[in-house]
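Request:
You are asked to prepare a plain-text protein record giving the amino acid sequence and the backbone structure tokens, at your earliest convenience.
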Amino acid sequence: MTDISHENVPSRARRRFPGISSRAYEHPADRSALVALRRLTGFDTVFKALSGLLPERSLRLLFLSDSVRVSEAQFAHLHDMLRDACYILDLEKVPPMYVKQDPQPNAMCIGMDEPIIVVTTGLVELLDEEEMRAVVGHEVGHALSGHSVYRTILLFLTNLAVKVAWIPLGNVAIMAIVTALREWFRKSELSADRAGLLVGQDIQASMRGLMKIAGGNHLHEMNVDAFLAQADEYEKGGDLRDSVLKILNVLPRSHPFTTVRAAELKKWSETRDFQRIMDGHYPRRDEDKDASVSDSFRESASHYADTVRTSKDPLMKLVGDIAGGAGDLGGKLRDKFTGGGGGAKGGAGGSATTDGGGTPDGPQNPEEGPRKA
């Protein structure tokens, strides 16, 4: 990593956020976990000690020897975007960035000691300048939050789970940790999407980038409003069986589904929290040491309570009804699982004959990192 120079400012006027803390844009679930980890005495020392067991050095050598390092001489436009992103988020040092030959659109930020950013040729060729700027900001957001440490651990554990799959119960224990890390990491991706918006400061570019990741370079065939409508349909559609299938589909993934990411980012861009950041009112990095763990957990709990209360998902609505003391839970469960509200009193009510949903994604290749930028 090299010291950042602020000689090159963003190519168009963008607001800068001096001393901004990652707490300003972190998803409540992500923030509560990170605040707790940062307050643990000796946490950094323990994970630094683990670095000898992790494939970080091997990965660094691999990218250095078999990828193209971004600089003023190579992929200069990406180099400028990277410096711009670090300038806007006031990241002290510019992480090394590499371009890896891979037709799959992908990006990741990994590293225990110092983060490195890797983007694939598929992503570079897919996105225009403003869309790519949001992705670079996304990865710089990961670096500022310290997500690269946990991403590296997740890659290591995922790879380890494959190697010890033959040991009775060994894989079960590791996969339990991996599953928990994936749930946290999915929330951290929502945080990084917000960082990308703070860097690009163009919600339409962020939306276009996510649509392209989902549907390829066919913008003339796609529409932002229709894409967001898919997310709404996904959330509220079906019955309890579909709710369970949604959970099963997302469990193996390190990233939320693309339509969900788009909807979450659009929603955040319209909040007072986002506007306050843009107006210059945000938590500062030098205040991180004083951040309250209990306050962060309360914010996280409040967020999940609001999610349950406002969700259109059948399972979440049922949970809300139960929490609110709704009557006739047996009838509600029967109707939800059969997908019908009528015909219940007469005996044989109508029910679907086939299950919806598809096959959950399998575990991703650890060497490839997280999919979908």
Observations:
- The beta strands are 2-3, 68-69, 93-94, 97-100, 107-110, 116-120.
- The first strand starts at residue 2 and ends at 3.
- Residues 242 and 357 are 7 Å apart (CA to CA).
